[in-house]
Batch of 2 targets.
Target 1
Amino acid sequence: MSLLASLAAQAAQPVTPVTSVLVETPSVDWWGLLPLILLAAPAMVLLHASSLLRRVFRGFYATASVGIAGTAAAFAIVQWFRVTDLDGGRGPYTTVASAYTVDGYSVFITVVLCVAVIVSSLVADGYLRREGLDGAETYALLLLSASGGVVMASANDLIVLFLGLEVLSIPVYVLAASHLRRSASQEAGFKYFILGAFASAFFLYGIALVYGATGSTNLGTIRQTLQDDPFVDGGALLLAGAAFLLVGFGFKVAAVPFHAWTPDVYQGAPSPVVSYMASGVKAAGFAGLVRVFDVTLAGQVRDWQPIVVGLAVLTLLGGSVLAVAQTDVKRMLAYSSISHAGFLLVGVAVASPEGAAAVLFYLAAYGLMIGGTFAVVTAVAGPGEQATGIDAFRGLGRRQPMLALGFTVLLFAQTGVPLTSGFFAKFGVIKAAVDGGWYWLAAVAMLSAVVGAFVYLRLVVAMFMVEDIDPHHGDGDVVAATPAPVAMPAALTLALAATVVATLVVGFLPGLLTDLAGDAVPVVLATLP
Amino acid sequence: MEFVVFLIAGAIVVGGAIGVLAFANPVHAALSLVATLFGVAVLFVAQNAQFLAAVQVIVYAGAIVVLFLFVIMLLGVDRSDDLRVEPIVGQRPLALLAGVGVLAASLVAVLSAGGSTATRTVRSTAVAIPTEEPDVTSLGRLLFTDHVLALEITAILLTVAVVGAVVLARRPGRDEPSVEADVEAEA
């Protein structure tokens, strides 16, 4: 029917009044959405309160941010008991037209994200004051980004997952560029934004193709459709869609070959923001990756597993080998975070509940240690983050032994030394690989850990075993340089102490966290219809 | 009737496209792009896709062309380029080849498909759109039922974007020099 004819037909008929049309909206389990709401809504309140009541709130932004994230985490923990207790509790469920999952897995990631925000806020407090940038917007953006991460971890719909990814990413693009007087920071934000937008486009295209192949964006429906008919549309459309999704995720978690942004962005962005990027953004990225590939596309595992294994190998080796060549500590940590993403990808690639549990354990442990590591980097780098070379750490063990000791514990944890959380994190993924029969992949992971050890030990050697001033250098002019002591704001010290203690506690009693991660995992594999 | 609408709209689309290439003034070219986009919007309405038509006008004819104009104004309207210079060697022949290629490929696709597209079964059952309902209504219904969470999260996304834009657009205080300037002064 042509346009005019249809218009004429409509005019001829009596029009039903619009007000009488009732749409039945889906039921909303507000209790399930509470951690998300408790992150996003107070972030808005914080923004408004800081501009309306500037005098009252000045200086308390970090406190407010820690309080907000802590409250959200507390409610998430309450939820945990209800969701994981299958006998007395409610068990995992979906809500809002089955677009949002509340299960042990999403709750676990929520807590990890809240902890990442708390650590970054504590580090950011001293940093922003030192740089003269103090304001509420940094904290508000951190909280909003974490709310995006919670959406990603809980999404049961590809559209919601994509929106979560954007809510997660856009604040981080802005935060990376938030040091307005440092052009390196601006450059970092710009690079991250351009490449991130590019990756988002890939992700979106992947969603479109998967929708085209399966006729739904709901993960549960997709899984069901694929179970009924695994060769849907010849499979090509679905596989192309999955490949594009993998590119999008690969960018977010900094997997080789989608890692090119990482060193520049880590180097240029403010260190507290980098701490959040390495802990929070990575956790949210892997949360989505595991839910889409290990759960939804579980039936297609033979198709995507070789690709993810390849990514894992490239990421493991590329990250640790390139880290060795760095002299700037932030760049070095960037490559080391790439190599850690490789370990996490091993956990994803084996596609087993053990692998997913190992990923969760790794994310929690790594989030804590990298948070503490960047706390130290923030402090040592000094005003304007000028001192990020290895030289800045030279002789730190003699000048400030406690700081150096804490840093050493965190570096050992990243190396994977026993009695730190990092050992059990690496052990978990390697064990999952061996259990899945991927012996050579486990061997590659161990090789990468050995190469990576050189990177961290070089920093330890610089701190404890190298004289900071060479008396024979510079014509006996010894007066030249005893570097000023590293300033340690109270909040930053607290963050460092807490992360070091947590790293050691998990290292001595890994059962605490393995049990939690183990509880979180079977739920995710069972929840989707 | 439909054919007449198609002819007029098609003429506007093609005319606008030729205008984009033919006008020497970039502002005129951008405005003629608006004509093309409006023509496409009319074609969407003729296909009963009112929502797409509205989006076409709001997003493309509205936002994107305004963005183009911003860039043109920013770079200076009266700055003219020497068209004989090719920044990339051989880009014009390659562009011609690519254009002809795309045209040929789409012609082949359309002609070979013929009427068979209509007989292809639609796989999805979830989105079977009731034909008597305008697509704007059914989209609205979906947005407030199946995708209500996505709608709400879009609200967060837009807020985040606005906050981010404000944070980035803020200028540092005039008395605070850049960190790099400090370092250069020391060196």
Note: Chain B has eight helices and no strands.
Target 2
Amino acid sequence: MRVKAVLQSNAALLCAVAIVQFGLFEAGLRLKGGTEAAPEFQRLFMADPALGYRLKPGATARFKTAEFDTSIAINTAGLRDREIGPKAPGERRLIVLGDSLVMAVQVPLRDTLTAQLERLLNADAVPPATFRVINAGVQGYGPVEEYLFYRDVAAALQPDIVILALYAGNDAVEAAGTGHRLQEHRPGGPANESLSLVDRFTQWRRRVIRRSMVLQVVRLRVSTVLYRFNWRQPEVDLPLRAYLPEAPPEIARGLDVMTEAVSRLDALTRSQGAQLVVLLLPARFQVDDEDFQRLRDMVARLGETLERDRATERFKSALEKLGVPVIDVLPSLRHAARRADVFMRSTAHFTPSGHETIARALQQYLVDHAVFERER
Amino acid sequence: MVFNSLQFIAFFLLVLGFYRVLPHRGQNVLLLVASYAFYASWDWRFLGLLVVCTAVAHVCARLLGRFGDGRARTLVLMLGVGTHLALLGFFKYFDFFGDTLRTLLGLAGWQLDSFTLKVLLPVGVSFYTFVAIGYVIDVYRRHTDPCEDLVDVAVFIGFFATLLAGPIERASSLLRQIRSPRSPTSGQAAEGAWLILWGCFKKMFVADNLARVVAGIYGADAAPGGLAIALATVAFAFQIYGDFSGYSDIARGICKLLGIELVVNFRFPYFVRTPQEFWTHWHISLSEWLRDYLFLPLGYAFSRRLDGVRWLGQRDDFWIYAASTMATMLLAGLWHGAAWTFVLWGAYQGGLLVVFRFLALRRRKKRRPPTSGWMFEWRHAPAVLVMFVLTCYGWLVFRADSWAQAVQFTSRLFTAFDPSWAVVRAGGLPLLLYAGPLLAVHTAEARRGSLETVQGFPRLARYSIYAALVYAIVLFGEFEGSDFLYFQF
């Protein structure tokens, strides 16, 4: 009995010490910064009743890692962009909706695809026409939040063209987890019943891990160890399932939700006299051969096959039914990657060169398809 | 399969599971099978070499046990020791001496196109051949009885915990334990768990992180400044200590879980004041092996040649010590690797030992009688610091890729120090971060002169250290599973 009491007391003390030190290490790592969980970065965001969160107007932060050092400023409209005044005569406005790939905290504002596209369009503009390309990307958003963000915030900016950047890498998964928001716009609405308990737990675990720097490192260590020693992971990582030959049910559901969100966005932009264009962005491994090799081997060990462009094809096929123009920048990025790095080394985001490639592809599309002529 | 890998953890848990339920004889058979499987996981082709070493040592020891005094015993001893030295010499040094001979002949104008065989170096060969030689000599000297059981001898020489990087165990300690029934106690399990955790911390947090700092300077294309070299060399001092002593700690820890006690191999070597103390605190099992099987016989041989000489005001005993020490340390340097930088490092260490012996003889009248147990005292800090600087210079020579780099780095220490905040930040900050916690724990231990200091702390302090070590390993440790440095020796 006494031995049991001593063991319990020791275990309790060890747990208490471990919890206190977890807090200390978490605080230390956050103070050191360098990841999105750092308070310096988190203060860019504020709560939003419909979207969960959005960018905080007027917030600023410096995001510094071993690979980049960026100053980020949010304008009064809650966008990572310059201030946006009233629409001038002759001004053509483009809004680019998207997630972290569009917001692009890894590069200075002038190097983002929106700023580069604006420069390219204005270089060829015939006065008095001018172009204003607005960055409406928000870290962590999926297609559903992007639609809601446009409806509640960006629509007021009177765009002529709305470009929705969809990320083939994880937007099906993101959409699957947020489909309920299309029905329930209130915070705390019912959870998505269509997801299995395991998937909901997985998404909850991902959210928790994203919020803790200690847990992010632990997750990385576990992945490294499992990968290095060829130990089987229980299943293919959720976003990678969009690249399997047979789409699992949660991916199919996610594509349905994504299609629904795009359809609503299309209807809304049409009703405002604007035009919607979808920009399809690939995952890094679709461009980086080494990355693909690694992930393909990892998935193969789980008895599955990773098809490099399967998710892109799925997105295209799903969007085809809507009749919305789709710009696939994968070929351009693959071509550009032969000359320069288009993806960051440490993250799945684009380098300035990658942003430039996408901006040029967009400009080419807009010119080739005479989008502004039609719009006029 | 390195100790800090998941494969080894799975392997060891499997061995431990069976070990706990088997009787003594079964335990030894299990350890033999596990040890050979462990060695084969590196390269099965060298298993034959290990078997030959074991067989030679076993046969020689049994013959030595049967023969009385006389010429036959000496012949068997020479056969045993000579065979092991020949194996070690061939596998470790053939190409080295072949290259050296070719270079020398080339200087004399004779071209020798092919003299090397590209012999592969079997991992751990320096360690298990020394264990085998020690066993044969101990039986010859009648310090230990020959073991009749081949399985026990095979476990003693090829034991997976000590096979690759020691400690270099003696028959009087490890073989005796292998021959006796063992049942691990809960105290041993707790000590073992602590040693494994502490060893992993030394290897994955201290050594592997500092390795990057060291490689950045020693592998740089452009010649670095003196300050950068100095910081990288201090980082290397902690890297090699963390790496090797970490391995020894893990080895001791897993042996404790099996109910086996290995010798302590490191005892705060950077808290000592003299080279003599250093070599009784650094790689202790090798130092003692060299002392018993090389230094003392050499001393005996030199005493017959140098008896009665008096040079430079020093008596024969000093010169016997100097000659034996230099010969021993040159060979010790060569044992560490087939490269002339290691020989130079051995010469440097030998020189330090001789110089400090000379100084000690001159101050003998002023010396205080030794205290009962060794422990670090703050008043010794200046002497400890001087000794640490001297040791670090030895590590510069040891770590250098070539003689030319050793000379160049030495020169830049004095002619191009180039101090700057950027250099301090790049080299000093990681040093502080990764070596600081190790140094803090070792200071507390050295102050008490005991390696069991942490276990004696109050529960809260102890648990705080345990948790902090786990967090440090997980959050900042190197998880790419790099090999231990001493495997190459």
Note: The radius of gyration of chain A is 22 Å.
